[in-house]
Amino acid sequence: MSVAQASALGGGTATRAPLDVAAIRRDFPVLTRTVNGKPLCYLDNAASSQRPRAVIDAISGYYETSHANVHRGVHRLSQEATDLFEGARETLRRFVNARSTREIIFVRGTTEAINLVAQSFARPRLQPGDEIVISWLEHHANIVPWQMVCEQTGARLRVIPITRSGEVDFEAFLGLLNDRTHLLAIAHVSNALGTVVPVDGFIAEAKRRGIPVLLDGAQAVPHMPVDVQALDCDFYAFSGHKMCGPTGIGVLYGREALLQAMPPWQGGGDMILAVSFERTVYNELPYKFEAGTPHIAGAIGLARAVDYLEDIGLERIAAAEHDLLEYATERLTGIPGLTIVGTAPEKAAVVSFTLGRVHPHDLGTILDAEGVAIRTGHHCAMPVMEFFGVPATARASFAFYNTRAEVDRLVDALQVAREMLG
Ligand SMILES: Cc1ncc(COP(=O)(O)O)c(C=O)c1O
Fold this sequence. Notes:
This protein is α/β, with parallel strands linked by helices. It has helices spanning 3-9, 21-26, 53-65, 76-96, 110-125, 144-153, 170-176, 199-208, 228-231, 256-261, 296-312, 314-333, 360-369, 382-388, 404-421; strands at 34-35, 38-39, 41-42, 104-107, 131-135, 156-160, 181-187, 213-216, 235-239, 250-254, 272-275, 280-282, 338-341, 350-355, 372-373, 375-377, 393-397. The chain has a 7-stranded mixed sheet, sandwiched between helices. It has a 4-stranded antiparallel sheet with strand order 13-14-17-16, with helices on one face. Pyridoxal-5'-phosphate is lined by residues 109-111, 139, 141-142, 187, 191, 216, 218-219, 239, 380.
């Protein structure tokens, strides 16, 4: 019996018992493999998490028994595929507590979700001189689409500064808001630093002024319960592959009234009700934004990932990862020459660091030889690197299937690197 099954039988999210990580690890086939003769120690979860057997089986089971194109066929397989696909949408609706499945748009991932909002929501509304507010700690996916729309419309990008600990400066944010501000687009959790942005205060201030808010939830959704109604945001974007689901699938949540008023951003099959050469009538929500054959298996796999995470319990996941973060922070702080970049009081399980003058890429290579997978580079957040005056950092990022023993392996591998690179 897998952990998720056992947990479901035992009451799922209701239980507060600590995670049985050894049992959870058995759900993830890849965690049994070796790298360079050593057991894999996978600490690159912020880039992409691993998948449990349940998700892999849901995808292959769909292809083995029920694959056909959705929404169009009257034959049995098409109906089954449609039911699975739309069932997945309902699972995702429940997961983020959207009011209706009309508010759940399947997209390729966070990047596509943000581009959709930039092109379909922002672009038609923006005039020269209007402003979009983002923060300094954004992933490029929450910078470049806004720069593009600014180029297209003559609008301006305003950037909220961050502090040395990696927090978004709330006072500076207040100072940036004015009657030209048309959108606040901000990360819920920073991928480069791990900062959990206290978005409630930012949203409340934006709402008081009637400014719509988009949250980039790519790094939040895998690690904490998210309720879009409680947050009161207008758009929320996230990716399947960071939350144990497939690549190439993600979700844009959008407030229905706003989505209704937005034009489609891609044209093609499925997003129409009627087409003639004179005129096309667009489909209703959410299909208006889903042109072409969707990633059916991706949506099914993502819904299975949601079930898996919920069976374990997002709050228990958050607690287990917090324990790993505290342990890793303490152990890494003890390594001479190691500097942690990003020390906000509220963090998700991400530790970015530099080690003396050693280039992070060299560190990453030595760690790989020890079987330890971390990420090195700018983490698609070049402005963050610029702010801290480093070209790159090394980043260990944890998931609920990681262990304190793996943190120890990271520390041991870093000691090896120190000895080799001096
Ligand atoms: C905070 C954040 N936003 C956006 C993205 C982009 O996600 P995707 O590449 O899945 O579209 C990432 C991916 O690392 C991220 O961490």
